[in-house]
Amino acid sequence: MSAIEIKNLTYVYSPKTPFEKVALSDINLSIEEGQFVGIVGATGSGKSTLIQHLNGLVKVQDKKKSSVVVNGMSATDKKTLKNLRFEVGMVFQYPEYQLFADTVEKDVAFGPKNMKLEKDEIDRRVRRAIEVVGLDYDAFAHRSPFDLSGGEKRRVAIAGVIAMDPDVLILDEPTAGLDPQGRDTILAQIQAYHRAKGAAVVLVSHSMEEIARNVDRIVVLSDGKVYMEGTPKQVFARAHELEQVGLDVPQVTKVAAALKARGLDIDTAVYTVEALEQKLLTLRGGASPC
Ligand code: ADP
User: Fold this and answer.
1) What is the residue with the minimal CA distance to atom 5 of ligand 1?
2) How far is CA 32 from CA 2, 3, 72, 201, 217, in A?
């Protein structure tokens, strides 16, 4: 079964007014269970509108033509919409702005409480979610989220979504505004959740480095349409087409291309620093780095 199945999805803001804007135009997309997918596209390409359909925050406009099914549940069906919101975890941009409780524990417990779970189950999930995001439960559970650093607040907010144990996790720029170390930590934790749960993850990011390091598959949106999709290798091999829609390839891919242009016999399908290092070492005869 697919985790996400989108068919013929079109969405127009302010239809039939002078402000009418087609945000999505006939999107067809299928995401398998357990897949980690990156969505990229220039500002205004439709990324937010698309992901907000996945938990019913934006409603399917034309129910006859379009369909959105997540985890077997239709986003157009009022009966399944509540379950959909429980099974699809959505981490919005700057999620820490939504923290509200006076302790970390209460904040993270908000979702599981709404799901009307038993107290023991809520406690177990809260503890696990706080640990999944790399915070020590005993040290953080009873602190105010408002006294934490920016990176810690972000992790508490993500823990609140993970505590709902979603089968599908959607994250809109989860590392925006964090320093490189904070970014790596959060992505490693998202990867850990993805692997442990076998959850499908959809990561919206403008960082090609971040996308290259983490995803199995990339979907490129442009002007409300799927412009290109494939593995990172397939997508980054089409640098020129990416440029045409205001996107770039990872820096390291450019470095590989520049080395090739200078005569080095190197495969330019490389998009992480580690992979380039390996290729260069192979050229040198396989010596290990010092
Ligand atoms: P992205 O997330 O890729 O930046 P969006 O989904 O936010 O793209 O926007 C897609 C298009 O829809 C853009 O042209 C944007 O200006 C327009 N849009 C987004 N939200 C609204 C809104 N609430 N009202 C009118 N137009 C909107």
Assistant:
1) 46
2) 4, 5, 12, 10, 11
User: Among the atoms of ligand 1, which is closest to the Cα of residue 43?
Assistant: 4
Sheet holding 36-40, edge to edge: 88-91, 168-172, 200-204, 36-40, 217-222, 225-230
| pLDDT tens, residue by residue, 64-116 | 999 999 999 999 888 888 888 888 999 999 999 999 999 999 999 999 999 99
Decide whether any atom of ligand 1 lies within 6 Å of the 45 Cβ.
yes
Cα–Cα distance, 266 to 255 (Å, whole number): 11
Report the alpha-carbon distance of residue 169 to residue 62 in Å, rounded. Answer: 25
- 247 touches ligand 1 (CB under 6 Å): no
Kindly give the residue spans of alpha helices, DSSP state H, lying in the chain.
47-53, 78-87, 104-114, 119-132, 137-140, 150-162, 180-197, 208-214, 232-236, 239-244, 251-261, 273-284
Q: What gap in Å lies between CA 285 and CA 143, rounded to an integer?
A: 54
Cα 263 from Cα 259, distance rounded (Å): 7
pTM of model > 0.85? yes
Nearest residue (by CA) to ligand 1, atom 24, is 13
Q: Read off φ and ψ for residue 183, nearest 5 degrees.
A: -65, -50
